[in-house]
Amino acid sequence: MVIIKDNFKTKLKYPTYIALGSFDGLHLGHMHLINRTVELSKENNAKSMICTFKNHPLSVINKEICPKLIMDNDTKMNLLQNTGIDIVNLVNFDKEFMKITPEGFIKNMVNFYNAKGIIVGFNYRFGYKNLGDVEMLQKYSSILGYKLYVCEAISVNNEVVSSSSIRHLIAEGNIIKANELLGRAHSITGEVIKGKQLGRTIGFPTVNLNYSKHYILPKGGVYYTLAEYENNIYKAITNIGYNPTVEGGKLSVETYILNFDKQIYGEKVKIYFVNRIRDEVKFDTIEELRKQLIKDKEYAFLQKR
After folding, report:
1. Residue 152 and residue 124: Cα distance in Å, rounded?
2. What is the pLDDT of residues 149-175, one digit of tens each?
3. Residue 201 phi/psi, 5° resolution?
4. Taking a C-beta distance cutoff of 8 angstroms, is the pair 154, 166 a contact?
5. What pLDDT shows up at residue 286?
6. Per-residue confidence (pLDDT) for residue 199, from 0 to 100
7. N or C: which end of the chain has fewer CB within 10 A?
8. What SS3 class is residue 232?
9. What integer pLDDT is reported at residue 53 of this predicted model?
């Protein structure tokens, strides 16, 4: 898989079948569309390509309403490596790109990327002020000589899979349902930083994650998680909250990793959220907190990965 960062500057000589979309979360609907793109490109002796954005368009258009993202680009690229996609184009959405008309966008796909097939979701919109839609893509397909393939929505247990619905589920703490729509466990990655180190004094040393505020966190509470460090997976308990028992004040992401005793400050850890155990609770004493953490540990120990 080749990763490029091109804003309609490079001309590709080989024919392509291009999947268009934001692909935040790479959920089951996205994966269906991507798999279809790979199949079509192979059937037509062409290269498969994903054309998406490096940054969310609203980060340029209106930062105030830009949603928190489900997935960072590094995680997205790692997952796409296993799909069979040939090329991923991470377009930099800037003020110049924002002004491209829908018609200009379509023509650029053909003129620069030699698009012979375009694959989109049923509600895909594009171009200046999102004025372009599937109907316009269909109209231009006969004019510019490409084929349009429209993928309908994917549903899981009668719920349509979408990035917005997954964001809502994560924010509500319904991590099991969110994971069903994603097709994998929701994860966040961050650098381990020093915290108050209170956990060490009661036998529960934690790793504190320096998470990015650009990405969505599950609702505050205690979760059964899996921690990935140096390609090894460990059972873990993660608390998202303000540490009310010790008056933490600042929102933190703290993870107690079972059977792990290394100090890894400054290193990267990925946390996978499996299910929500309980709300964050303010205990009257540190001893009560310790007893609850023992129960949480026993719960985590009994879980299947």
Report:
1. 11
2. 999 999 999 889 999 999 999 999 999
3. -70, -20
4. no
5. 82
6. 59
7. C
8. strand
9. 96
Q: Where are the domains of the chain?
A: 2-156, 186-302
Res. 128 pLDDT band, cuts 50 70 90: very high
CA distance 244 to 249: 8
CATH of 186-302, one of 2.40.30.30, 3.30.2350.10, 2.60.40.10, 3.40.640.10: 2.40.30.30
pLDDT tens-digit series, residues 225-277: 999 999 999 999 999 988 765 555 678 899 999 999 888 999 999 999 999 99
CA–CA separation, 37 vs 19, rounded Å? 6
Which amino acid is located at 39 in the chain?
E
Angstrom distance (rounded) from CA 294 to CA 11: 60
Helix, strand, coil fractions of the chain, as percent rounded to 5 = 35, 30, 40
Which class is 2-156 in CATH? alpha beta
**Cα gap 295→38, rounded to integer Å:** 47
Helix (H, G, I), strand (E, B) or coil at 126: strand
DSSP state letters, 136-193: HHHHHHHHHT-EEEEEPPPEETTEE--HHHHHHHHHTT-HHHHHHHHTS-EEEEEEEE
- Dihedral angle, C-alpha 96, 100, 106, 110, nearest 10 °: -40
Using only C-alpha atoms, what is the Rg of the chain?
22
**Residue 282: pLDDT band by 50, 70, 90 thresholds?**
confident
d(CA 260, CA 232): 11
